[in-house]
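Dear colleague,

As promised, here are the two records you asked about, laid out in our usual form so they can be pasted straight into your sheet.

NAME FIELD: protein one
SEQUENCE, THEN STRUCTURE:
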Amino acid sequence: MVFVGVEGAPKDQCGQGSSGFPAVTVDETPVVAEKPFVTIDSKGLYYLNIPEVKSKTSGVEWAGSQKVGFEHVFVAKEGDSAADINKQLAKGMHVVITPGTYVLQESLKVVKAGTVVLGLGLPIMVAGNGDSVIEVGDVDGVRVAGMILEAGPVASPTLVQWGTGKYKGSAKNPGVISDVFGRVGGPARYPNVETTTMLNIASGNVVGDNLWLWRADHTAAGTTTPADNPCQTGMNITGDDVTMYGLAVEHTLKDLTSWTGEGGSTYFYQSEMPYGVDQKGWGDAGYVGYRVGDGVKAHKAFGVGVYHFFRDYVVTCDTAIAVPDALVDSFHSPLAVFLNGNGVVKHVINKLGGETKSDGKGGAIVATYCGGGPAPGPSPGPSPGPSPGPSPGPSPGPSPGPSPGPSPGPSPTPSCNVGDTVTCPGSAATCAGNQCCPDASTCPSASDDFSGCSQPKTVDCTKGALSWILA
């Protein structure tokens, strides 16, 4: 679990350590603004409340919202066209969208600074004619919140286009997108739908809070293959200083998230690789769950998790997360998870961290990379089913159950080099280098100077021959 700006949060614990509770704890929320909301006063007058942007906060804060009368708000109803809504946006009106399904024949164009587009009851906004659902111009302080974005029958480049790529944005007045869920496939509305990406952020200083971007692993018609409802990448971020909280991206056909903007940060990320891909289409292509571009100098992430369930083919992936080597230490508690099915992910991040694959017993296998500090090898957990259905509501994915204790006698481990992936003594779990086994003993392939585990090695395979260490 990831706690950001939460008072009374548990102590930070990378992986399934002796406490048995993996947690990532960040004391302060760097920058955030709550989702806009509607209130009514004692006279029956409605107001749109726009919470202010806050920095370096912790705990609950109720004060600090701009209150706007509904004479400045256009209330969209099912049946209103994109052209109707765009006329109001061009006038500088805020827009509140009531529940319903809106098949848009053109993008909603947000061109005025400080505009709010707020959905009530999660209205479904369909890209009906090959355009994006929403285009945000090079302006500050825009808020988009509370809706489902759906790909349509004509292929679109993206569902949300935020900025042109020419605007740095404002750190004091960032754009904010909250509680927005994208889906490519799911309902029986169209036989097949398509978009290249779901969210494309090209402006700087944009904040995302609670986003789930889902290419359907199953639809109303049944399970899907890579030919069905194609989407290449869930989120593509080229803008600088973009911050994401509670981000989930699932089942796209190439890198699930691609981040080439500078100064980005993510606080909780859950992703799941596509089910029906094969070795050529996924493993050999080198696609990953989370990629930071080779030229990026600054990026940090807390609690990035990549899950895999290769349903139809045996697929071997080199890594779950790919970043420039200089940024590995900026990733706090990244993890990979085998859910079910076939294949293996060999490393958590770049060439680091243990592999995740079936242990033959049935159940999830988790590997967490903790750098130079304590880290468990993969450990059995409950076997989750496939990802949630097409009704979006972000699901952070399964949490692994507690690791079992070691078997009565250790199993032999061959000689190895420092950093090799090896089997933990008395367990089906594996570890790699400076990590800890489920029983808190030091990995057999750890370096001699590593002291990050609560127990020393019980087996040392780095000496050229298997060595048992007697207490």
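NAME FIELD: protein two
SEQUENCE, THEN STRUCTURE:
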Amino acid sequence: MRRSVAYEKQDKPVEAYEDIKKADELAPNTARIKARCVKLSVAAQERQEKMKNEMLGKLKDLGNTILGNFGMSLNNFKAQKDPNTGSYNISYQS
């Protein structure tokens, strides 16, 4: 429990959530732990979503840097998902 609080103060919600989950397994009937578990779950999900969006943005920038040498951009490509097979069809649009 204390380590979870320390992680939260260090702005590490994913680690804090993992610790509070373990505390919840050890003491499942504690209301205080349950409340922190719910709160940290939301914070951890938000942090992971933010990190995912940041990583995808950096990957897109890298792709645009490479494609820029050929006069193209990732914005020129369109991906359409086939509902029957689940595969993607990627087409170039100029």
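A couple of things worth noting about protein two: Residues 2 and 23 are 10 Å apart (CA to CA). The radius of gyration is 21 Å.

Best,
R.
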